Amino acid sequence: NCYTIIRVKFDKWYAQQAEKAGAQVYSGVKVSKILRKGNQVIGIETSEGDQLHSDVVICCDGVNSMLAQSIGLIDEWKPDEVALGVKEVLSLPEGRLKDRFQLEGNEGATYEIFGDTSKGMLGYSFLYTNRDSISFGVGCKLSHFQKERIAPYDLLENAKKHPVIRRMLADAKPMEYSAHLIPEGGYYSLPPLYTDGFMIAGDAAQMINPKHREGSNLAMAAGMMAAQTAIEAKKKGDFSKATLSAYQRKLEASVVLPDLRDHRDIEPVIERNMHLLTIYPEMVNKALHEYFTVDGRPKRTVMHSIKKKIFKTRSIMKIAKDFWTLRKAFS
Q1: Which of 122, 125, 171, 222 is the least crowded, having the fewest Cβ atoms under 10 Å away?
Q2: What average pLDDT does the chain have?
Q3: Would you report the helix, strand and coil content of the chain in percent, each value rounded to 5?
Q4: What is the pTM (predicted TM-score) of this model?
Q5: Which of 219, 269, 163, 284 is CA-nearest to residue 7?
């Protein structure tokens, strides 16, 4: 049940569905301020000075939520709480794309690439096909970009030169380049999710599961539960913090908060053990290369050679400790 989509097209369609359901959509309008009466949020103000009063505001303004910052729910994210992703969309005729990736009908292909393309930083590369284009990009922790002093576009260009990726992108023409901050703090960075007349969801609330590359689905689920909470509050005529706490309970009973909590340790664990992204990919590549090379040696001899090289690179005790550490983080 996985799909690759062009967000520009999907968001337009999604907004149309909201309008059909009775919502009013204002595009091209920047919300610059939250209106408050005492501690109660009572609406928003645009950068043009127009005011829109409401019983409740559901804040979903992306990774740098200026609105949540303005009322003190969050601080500006630290560099180790966000990743920076850079991406190119490259055009390739549909027929050639299907042949290259061996696709039929509406099938697509996705690849996630770990190892040398992130230059030892915490991150990975990704490639997925669209109908007549390929999206390829790389993302790493912002703090790692700062520490290594690697320019994101240089990292992207380097990844494109990898022998496997280079062949996948051959003759594809770049159409679009983009960069975006992505929440990476996860459960440990979750802000207070509600206050009087106000709820927060999606990227603005760090609702990202980096282990499973999930974000849009969690944002939509949280948005739906925030809306359900607002409807219940409307029936009661009460939009206080106590009433809106039902939003937190709904998130706890859904996939959103349990998944964020269960996978909260994977990135901190890997960041404390960065060799997992360097030593092991190289070790596996070399082992497989030697195992499948026909050189006249019996496979028993080959396996003995591989084991000897592996344990020379990393002791059996350290390997066991690494796998136990990963097991605990993934459990």
Answers
A1: 171
A2: 92
A3: 45, 20, 30
A4: 0.85
A5: 219
What 3-state class would DSSP assign to 82?
strand
Task: Please name the residue that has the structure tokens 């136990």.
Answer: 324
In this structure, how many other beta carbons lie within 10 angstroms of the beta carbon of residue 121?
A: 21
* Phi and psi, residue 63, nearest 5°: -60, -40
Dump pLDDT digits (tens) for 80-123. 999 999 999 999 999 999 999 999 999 999 999 988 889 889 99
- And the tokens for 263? 């996978």
User: Position 39: which residue type?
Assistant: N
Instruction: With H, G, I as helix, E, B as strand and everything else as coil, classify residue 40.
Output: strand
Q: Where are the beta strands (DSSP E) in 6-165?
A: 31-37, 40-46, 51-53, 57-59, 82-91, 110-113, 123-129, 133-141
Q: Is 281 strand, coil or helix?
A: helix
Cα–Cα distance list, 322 to 194, 264, 266 (Å):
39, 18, 13
Bridge partners, 112 (sequence order): 126
